[in-house]
Design brief:
Length: about 375
């Protein structure tokens, strides 16, 4: 089969990690999962097919691929689109030309980003309505739509009606990589002491990291942010203005992330626009409780009183109270995280994916 994605290496985000991990595990088990992605500085391996691309002007670090199908892909029995845009359209065209099933994953609620693209209310409304209509059109073309949580699946299903089946399949976590490790060396290397509350990922407006900064300023903690993005300078100024003890570590290699998660007392994720939140899953797999917002897929990723706590989105005081509560219940929550590790395994996700693929292929030959 072939996967089409507008987000791939070297871009660092949850979609990239998911596509890369699924491909590696799929091929390790003897299957074929080619990846078609926007050309970049990434050197393609066998089975990776770059297409011409241009920078996406509204989202730094992301490139938009031309809606084309490389001749090197060849014959496939199924197409999986991880985007509804340029390369998703190319994937749909390939599936149609070969008369094979098209599966599409709903990774990102595009309409939720409208407010970050334009501060003008009328423009924001237009972008939101256009994105919603376009997504409804694209996903209705698929034989099956996948979403990473039941919350996201219900949202897509409500838009599509009964015409297209929608199923929840978690992105999953590579448990051989993301596990509790001794983080003393990481703390020492970065000069980190005391209670640590942190986040890793894109520093973008949509992640609402100002909520974390403002919440941490009122607590006896150091907030540690790894990653980078267009909001970083603003967040650094905000931390200074509020007197928050904040450390910005910049980009961390993925191999270091288990030590980063394990070094934290609490992982904080105030973003209201997640369909699941891969970094939250990784933190839980490392035994680190998560404080997130009661919105989107984080409603399922964070189980109150078991793997962490949630707070209403956009409310620093409530978010800070949830962090403080997690710090007080740390040992109980750490055990709760570890008890949930097996349920997060990417192998479980791929097993479910194989079942869904097989059902689609069988229905085509019946």
């Amino acid at each position: 089969m072939a996967a089409f994605t507008d987000t791939y290496l070297p871009t660092v985000n949850g979609v990239t990690y998911t596509v890369q991990t699924w491909r590696d595990r799929w091929e390790r088990s003897g299957g074929r999962m080619d990846v078609v992605y926007p050309d970049s500085t990434h050197v393609p391996a066998v089975g990776e097919h770059p297409v011409g691309s241009v920078p996406f002007p509204f989202y730094e670090g992301v490139r938009v691929g031309a809606p084309q199908v490389p001749e090197t892909v060849g014959e496939v029995d199924l197409v999986h689109a991880h985007t509804p845009f340029g390369l998703g359209l190319a994937g749909r065209r390939l599936a149609h030309s070969l008369s094979v099933p098209l599966v599409a994953t709903f990774h990102t609620p595009t309409a939720e980003y409208a407010g970050y693209l334009s501060p003008v209310t009328a423009v924001e409304r237009l972008v939101r309505e256009t994105a919603t209509s376009y997504e409804r059109w694209f996903y209705s073309l698929a034989d099956l739509v996948i979403a990473p949580t039941e919350t996201a699946a219900s949202r897509v299903s409500a838009r599509l009606g009964e015409g297209t089946p929608v199923r929840a399949v978690s992105n999953g976590v590579d448990l051989s990589t993301f596990r509790p490790v001794d983080a003393a060396g990481f703390r020492e290397r970065h000069g980190l002491e005391g209670r640590l509350v942190g986040y890793t990922g894109r520093h973008g407006d949509e992640k609402a990291l100002e909520v974390l900064i403002e919440a941490a300023a009122a607590l006896e903690v150091t907030v540690v942010l790894a990653g980078d993005g267009p909001a970083r300078e603003r967040l650094e100024r905000l931390a200074r203005r509020h007197g928050a003890r904040a450390r910005f570590l910049g980009f961390l290699d993925r191999s270091v992330l288990p030590a980063f998660y394990s070094a934290l007392d609490v992982f904080a994720f105030p973003s209201p626009v997640e369909t699941q939140g891969v970094v939250a899953l990784e933190a839980i797999a490392c035994g680190t409780p998560v404080v997130g917002v009661d919105a989107g897929g984080l409603r399922e990723t964070v189980v109150d009183g078991v793997t962490g706590y949630t707070a209403p989105p956009g409310e620093p005081d409530a978010f800070g109270e949830a962090i403080q509560r997690a710090l007080c219940d740390l040992r109980t929550l750490e055990q709760g995280c570890l008890s949930r590790r097996d349920s997060l395994a990417v192998d479980r996700s791929l097993s479910r994916l194989r079942e869904l693929y097989a059902d689609l292929l069988a229905s085509r030959t019946a």
